[in-house]
Each structure stands twice: as C-alpha cells, then as structure tokens.
Amino acid sequence: MRKSLHTFIDLLFDKSLYVSGIAVLLLSVIDISNVNEWTVSVFGISQFKIGKLFYYLIVLIAFIFGIVSVAHAKNVSDLENDKKEKGEKIRDLESTLSEIVQETNELFNSYIKLLVKNLDFTHSERISVYKVYQNSFVLIGRSSINPNLMEKGRPKYPLKQGFIGKGWAEGEYFVDDLPDPLNRSGDTYFKKVNEISPIEREVVDNLNMKSRTYFVYRVNGFDNNPKAVLVFESEKEKAFAKENIIESLAGVKQPLIMFIEKNNGVKALENKDLDL
To answer: What are phi and psi of 33, to 5 degrees?
Structure first.
C-alpha cells in the first residue's frame, strides 16, 4: 500500500503540468455550474459550505502543481542546454582526435617511406603494414614511389589466408621466384600461389599488384605478443634479399612498433581492391 501510494505521488509530480491544467479546467467548470455555492448539513452545521472547500482545494492543487510544472520545465530546459553543451564538447573532442589521428598516420607513413628509401625500392616495389583487429588484418599503412601501387584493397583480410596469413602464423615468409603473372593467362602464377597458400582464383585475378617477390615479417608488440605484419613485395623476380630487409628494419623497428601499439591502427584505410 505504501509503495503504491509512493508510486502514485511520483506519477502526479511527473505529470504536474497535466494535473495543474486539469485543475484549472475544473475551476472553470465550478464557476459555471455554481458548485462553489453547494452546502451540506454536517457536524451540527446546517449550511457547511462544502462547495467553497472543494473550490479552494482545487485552487491549491492548481497552484502547487503549477509551480512544480514550471520548476520541472526549467529543469528540462537546463538538461537540454547541458546536453547541447556536452554534445558540442564531444564534437570538438572528436574533431581534435581526428586531427591527432591524421597527424599520427602521416608520421607513421613517413617511417614507411623512409624504409622504402633506405631499401632503394623502385616503382616496382611497395611496403604495407597490416594490424590484427577483431580477428582480421586491417591495412594501417602503405608506401611506394609508384602511386598505382598505393591503391587500396579489401577493408579486412582473413588471418589464415594468403602470404600474409602464412607469415603471421610462421613469423616470417619469403619467396622470390613466383612465375610471371602474364604467362598462360595467369594460370602458372595462380597455381604456384595456390600451392603455397590456398586462395580463390578470383582473389588472385583481382590483385592490384601481382608480385613475384614477397617477404612477410611479423612484428611483436612491447608485450612480446604478435601485433602486425610488414609486407615487402615487388613485381620483379629476386628483387631483394630477406637479410637486407631485416638489416634495414633495425633502425626503424622500435618506432614502428610504437606506432603500431599506440596509433589508431584499427582505423583502416577504406579499401576497395583485393589483395593477398
């Protein structure tokens, strides 16, 4: 009973605007119908003005709930203003964060560009960095002096597919003698790739870059757990040696790990083409 009464009172105050409106409407009805002139015989009083008592009770209800509704409206207005201010602050923070992310990505890619330069990579080579996020690889950085090789691929890559998946599982993977992808309409190229790591023909046919030399190198984080893979590739056969790549990594490996750990890695490039 007590709980029900408490709930009823809370409901009245929550609907204070409607209660005060109904009370004002009742006052108009009372005036028109002369209810305020009603009298009864009670408690030894022959003409107890119950109509007046009812009238003043309605006036009191209208007054109390009118004040409550005004206060409630003010609170709602304050909440809306507070929500608006917080929304603006959130948008400002998102904008600032977006700028920081962009600057971080640019700095991250500058290290990859430096690596491209140190390796004397030509227009036939490129370097890509894939980070593991939600059980998939996402591309977080890519560099090549050839803008055609900078085109983006799929937004996500399976962990167990292609040379990337093989390098991820084994720590590293190197091959430098893949067949010419132009021979026999790509049949020999697909056959060799598929022998190394099973993959659909459609995926291989739609590759933006059909490389003949690959080096996939897994990168561990500061906690020594695998976090990403670096992919070095060339359209040429025997384009580079694995040992030279590892030696060149020595000078930039730590900064790369830092960016892979701390940057927005999960903000993948908006990929559109297929890749290994």
So the answer is: -95, 0
114-142 pLDDT tens trace: 889 889 999 999 999 998 888 889 888 89
pTM: 0.62
Spatial neighbors of 123 by CB under 8 A, at least 6 apart, are: 144, 145, 146, 149
Does residue 72 sit in helix, strand or coil?
helix
Q: Tell me how far apart the alpha carbons of residues 212 and 192 are, in angstroms, rounded to a whole number.
A: 11
d(CA 51, CA 43): 16
Which residues, in sequence order, are CB contacts of 269 under 8 Å at separation 6+?
139, 140, 142, 152, 155
Q: What is the largest CA-CA distance in the chain?
A: 118
Nearby residues of 276 by Cβ (< 8 Å), 6 or more positions away: 162, 163, 164, 193, 199, 203, 204, 207, 211, 214
Would you tell me which CATH number, out of the four given (3.40.50.300, 1.10.357.10, 3.30.450.40, 2.60.40.10), belongs to the domain 119-262? 3.30.450.40
Amino acid at 198: P
H/E element, 146? none
